[in-house]
Amino acid sequence: MKKAFLLILLTAGLLSGVSMAASDAANNAREAARRYGAAVRNCDMGWAVDSMYPPLRRTYADQLTASAPGSEAARAHRIMGINNRSETKEEARARMIASDRALREKYARIGKAMKDSGVKIESFTVGAPYSEYVVTPPMASVQAVRKDTKGVRAVEEVQQTKDRSRIVVLPTTLVISMPSRNGTTRMERKSHIFAVRDEVITDTGISRGTKLNQWYFIDGNTDVNTLRTFFPDLPLYIKLPASGDRTL
After folding, report:
1. Which of 81, 83, 154, 172 has the most other CB atoms within 10 Å of its CB?
2. C-alpha span between 124 and 23 (Å, rounded)
3. What radius of gyration, in Å, describes the C-alpha atoms of the chain?
4. Rounded distance, CA 247 to CA 196, Å?
C-alpha cells in the first residue's frame, strides 16, 4: 500500500543545469508551479485535481464514471437499442458535475490515506524550465477539416490558425519520508510536471473549461501520447529531464 502511495505522489525531478533559454512565459509557469508544490507538501490531492488541465480532468472524470457499477450494462442497452433516449443538456451537465465530484473525492481520499499512514512530504522543489512548446489546440484542426470539403486546405489552415496553447516541462524534486520496519525511510525522486495554458482560443462556442493564460498542471506520470490527444502537433520527441529514485 505504501508503495502505491509513492507511485501516486512521487512526480518530481531535479535539473542539474538549464538546457534552454527560458522565456518569460516559462518562468511564469515555474512561479505558478510553486503554488502547486505547496499543495503537494500538504498531501492535498484535491488541489491536484483543481489545478489539473480541465480537458484532461474531464477525461479522467468520465473514465471514473465509466468504471462505476452498472455503467457497462447501460452501454450495452444503448448498443442494443434498449432505452436509447438521448441525454438532455441538463442531464449531461448533472452527470459531468457528479463525475467531477467523484474524481475529486477519490484524490482527497488518497491524500488522507497518505497522512493517516504517516507519509510526510519533506520538500517539493521546482527546477528551471527544461523545455517549452507552443502548440495548436485540437478544435482548431477540427474547424479546418470541417471547412475543407475537398480535403486540400486543412493542413495549411491549421498551420495558419491563431489558436495557441503552451506546454512547459518543469523538473521537480520530491523528498518523502514514511514509517518502515527500521524506523523511517526517506526517498528522493527526480521527474517532472507539465505546465499547460491556453493563450488564444478563437472558437468560443465550445468550452474547454480553461481560463486564458492560467497555468494548469499535469503530473509526469501522464503519458506524452495523452498530451497529444489534446495537442496533436506536439513534437514526436519532446525533451524531458532525467528521472529516477534513490534512498536517502
Report:
1. 172
2. 23
3. 20
4. 31
What letter represents residue 150's amino acid?
Answer: K
CA distance 118 to 31: 29
Amino acid at 46: G
CB 186 within 8 A of CB 160: no
| SS3 assignment, position 237 | coil
What pLDDT sits at residue 170? Answer: 95
Find, among 229, 172, 225, 174, the residue nearest to 195 by Cα.
172
Report residue 61's pLDDT band, with 50, 70 and 90 as the boundaries: confident
C-alpha distances in angstroms, 182 versus 1, 187, 245? 17, 14, 19
C-alpha span between 170 and 191 (Å, rounded): 9
What is the Cα–Cα distance from 71 to 67, expressed in whole angstroms? 7
| Exposed/middle/buried for residue 189 (C-beta within 10 Å: 0-12, 13-18, 19+) | buried
Residue 145 has pLDDT above 50, yes or no: no
pLDDT value for 190: 92
The dihedral sign for the CA sequence 148, 153, 159, 161: negative
Decide: helix, strand or coil at residue 149: coil
Q: Which residues contact 114 (CB under 8 A, 6 or more apart)?
A: 5, 9, 43, 45
The pLDDT tens digits of the residues spanning 168-192 come to 999 999 898 888 888 888 989 899 9
The backbone torsions φ and ψ at residue 143, rounded to the nearest 5 degrees and listed phi first, read -60, -45
> Whole-angstrom Cα distance, residue 233 to residue 155?
11
Contact, 197 vs 216, CB < 8 A?
A: yes
Amino acid identity of residue 35, one-letter, is R
